Amino acid sequence: xxxxxxxxxxxxxxxxxxxxxxxxxxxxxxxxxxxxxxxxxxxxxxxxxxxxxxxxxxxxxxxxxxxxxxxxxxxxxxxxxxxxxxxxxxxxxxxxxxxxxxxxxxxxxxxxxxxxxxxxxxxxxxxxxxxxxxxxxxxxxxxxxxxxxxxxxxxxxxxxxxxxxxxxxxxxxxxxxxxxxxxxxxxxxxxxxxxxxxxxxxxxxxxxxxxxxxxxxxxxxxxxxxxxxxxxxxxxxxxxxx
Length: 242
Fold this sequence. Notes:
Layout: E1 12-17, H1 32-46, E2 51-56, H2 64-69, H3 74-98, E3 103-107, E4 116-117, H4 120-128, E5 132-136, H5 146-156, E6 161-166, E7 171-172, E8 184-185, E9 187-188, H6 190-195, H7 203-211, E10 216-220, H8 226-231, E11 238-240
Parallel strand pairs: 1-2, 1-6, 2-5, 3-4, 3-5, 6-10, 9-11
Antiparallel strand pairs: 7-8, 10-11
Helix pairs in contact: 1-3, 5-7
């Protein structure tokens, strides 16, 4: 393989994963072997010299919308969901540092004993020093999802793409788990995602990505080496762009 062929497609990216991705086969909480496996996927990309941001959801611990649906005041429920993302970020930090990757957890809600406050210029400097930055607590505001937080942070950090790790290898016209005739898109526009309600990310996140010309790459987090493979120009995925 030539030196040119080994150059990654992007030099700075944001990886967005759901909290449920950390559960493994459990129905709740964290599954340490699964967290460690995802950390190794991040390590493989880090070794290419790519600067990496991460945003992890909190649905494996607490989901604000579900709490609200059960009668909890929405703002309180959303703040509880933000705290769940901090727990997941700390777990991922522990797994990454166990394999030698310097990491910073950066929280939109101040909790100085466990995480750094979000200061954009400081976060950029961490990335330049090849530290993985895990952005926690969403945007710090209720009524915004971690999808929107991921798109916001990717834009602020001047990332070249958002990688959305899911259980399937791209975006389909219908649920591939329920429909055997579901067809995968190789590429799809932001407007088509919104018009067809394809469920890549919530509408606010898609609109923000579109306004900032930020491509979203949807791939399977279950496929070993999939994250690194896409950066090397291989693998199966769907890209969302204009």
